[in-house]
User: Fold this.
Amino acid sequence: MHNQTMPIPAPGRAGRVAGIRARQTLTAAAYLAPMMAGLLLINVFPILYTFYISLTNRNGPARFAEGTYELTGFQNYTRLLSQPDFYLVLGRTMIYAVSCVFLFFVVGLTFALILNNPAIKGRALWRTLLILPWAVPYWITALIWKFLFHGQYGPINQSLRLIGITPPDWLLNGATAFFAITVVNVWLSFPFFMLILLGGLQAIPGELYEAADLDGAGWWQKLFRITLPLLRPVAVPAVILSLITTLKIFETIFLMTGGGPVVRLGQPGATELLLVWAYNQGFQGAQRFGLVGAFSIVVFVILLVVTLVYSRVTNATRAVYE
Assistant:
């Protein structure tokens, strides 16, 4: 019998494997480093600096420069949460956001149902035309609609005068200004819902509608018992995402009304929603940066909560397809 010897591992093999893994780790870190640095600089640092400013008395032009303010703890938060204006702006913003998202869904669903109908010819063309409001930059749309709602020269009021109706000054009256910015936001955002819901409609099996027809179900019954329940997995995340976006709206309202008109002296304007109110507090005269910092952190927490709800709902609806 010949003696069989076990193969001896090549010397340094474990060391070479460890070296390869170390080089791979360093390579991955080198690729990720610029992104992480940008993330820290653009996202994390502004949040931390805003929180720091919210803990100071940096309110007013006298304390604008660096080094002319000091830490005061949570005084700005106490001051903010004791202001009636804060709750007025927050409540008005929530009403605006809920109203807009409801209209986004209704208008988007209406057009999605129309485009999903096989009887409609040239659906690709109509889909392209209907998505244009979403594709145009917000600031361009805001300026166009500001001209359309102009009290004297706007085409809307001129058309109303032609048919004998006395038109309002849309952007100079509190109720009509709020209505105007709602219309513009719906115009900008309904194409997003239309595309999302259209994709959901096309994923619903046609056999369900055929079975409902055999059972004698009407159009409304099929809508509420088949269409809407099966659209929920795509509709709920879209609703929450649009709610977050609407709560952060700024440029459209600022360009159209600047937060006005002022309905009552000493109170925020009729369209002065969250971010517009914060901007006006910080950069329009008072320069209350400490108070605005506290306001920003409170809004950040609110949006963070909504985002966490969005993530939870998204994961829950994802299970429907798994």
